[in-house]
From TrEMBL:
Gene3D superfamilies: Vaccinia Virus protein VP39 (3.40.50.150)
GO MF: sterol 24-C-methyltransferase activity
Family designation: Belongs to the class I-like SAM-binding methyltransferase superfamily. Erg6/SMT family.
Species of the source: Phytophthora kernoviae
Record-given protein name: Methyltransferase domain-containing protein
Superkingdom of origin: Eukaryota
Residue intervals of the Methyltransferase domain: 38-133
GO biological process: sterol biosynthetic process
SUPFAM superfamilies: S-adenosyl-L-methionine-dependent methyltransferases
Length: 248
């Protein structure tokens, strides 16, 4: 069931790839295998949380701001028989009471851009991690000289992103919180064809999507995929994968 769900319940890019990398990070943390714990920020339907729990045996706190997504994720987790390993939490990470040194890995897959408040966000990630734990992020960053009016409109109205940092700002912000020097990988050229292909295929199958999901939902997704592909092709917005470790 998890393999089937993986095509619809994971809202990040490149399917299984980030899951494998996070599972590998879990093997490098100091905690014993039975004590491994992950915080999945912006879990959506909980696909990432379920795959991590299933493959590594870790426990996961799956945090989601939107109550409908959280409830759907909880129901799917229950149907997959993983309710003993995953706790679905409907809350705002910026308002949540942080439990210090609680997690081996904190995960943010395409969700930090929606949260912003970068200093507070990064500090909460740092404080939540156990010594020797890892922060794993896939997200957008400001890559070009400056955003165009269209870029800003897409980020605000379609992506719901208020502010992006440059690479230097991200690295400096993490260092200020106490993280070791992060591994920052600019994956823009990898994401560009992926996003363009997603947009092209969805639009080509729009009639099928309308029949399945209804006119409003299908047209909204078609618009969203088109705008995101366009903003990445323009080059001012990029994608990155980052791994940062909390010192022992």
């Amino acid at each position: 069931m998890l393999l089937v769900l993986g095509t619809v319940d994971s809202l990040h890019f490149f399917g299984d790839e980030p899951i494998r990398r996070i599972v590998e990070l879990l093997t490098k943390t100091p905690s014993r295998n039975g004590d491994k714990k992950v915080l999945d920020v912006g879990t959506g339907f909980g696909g990432t949380a379920r795959l991590l729990a299933h493959r590594s045996g870790c426990k996961v706190d799956a945090l989601e701001l939107q109550p409908d997504l959280c409830e759907a994720g909880r129901a799917l987790t229950r149907r997959c028989g993983l309710g003993d390993r995953i706790s679905h939490l409907n809350d705002d990470f910026l308002e949540l009471v942080v439990t210090p040194n609680a997690y081996d890995v904190v995960v943010g897959l395409l969700c930090f851009l929606h949260i912003g408040h970068w200093n507070d966000l990064f500090q909460r990630c740092f404080d939540s991690l156990k010594p020797g734990g890892f922060l794993y992020i896939d997200d957008f960053f400001l890559r070009g000289e400056e955003l165009t009016v269209e870029d800003e409109q897409t980020l605000k109205e379609d992506v719901y992103c208020s502010e992006l940092l440059r690479r230097e700002g991200i690295v400096a912000g993490l260092a200020a919180c106490g993280f070791e020097e992060p591994s920052f990988e600019d994956v823009t050229t990898k994401w560009q064809p992926y996003l363009l292909d997603r947009s092209t295929k969805y639009h080509a199958d729009l009639a099928v999507q309308i029949a399945r999901d209804g006119v409003a939902t299908a047209r909204e997704l078609d618009h969203f995929y088109t705008r995101v592909a366009r903003i990445f092709q323009a080059g001012n917005v990029g994608g990155y994968t980052l791994i940062a470790r909390k010192p022992l």
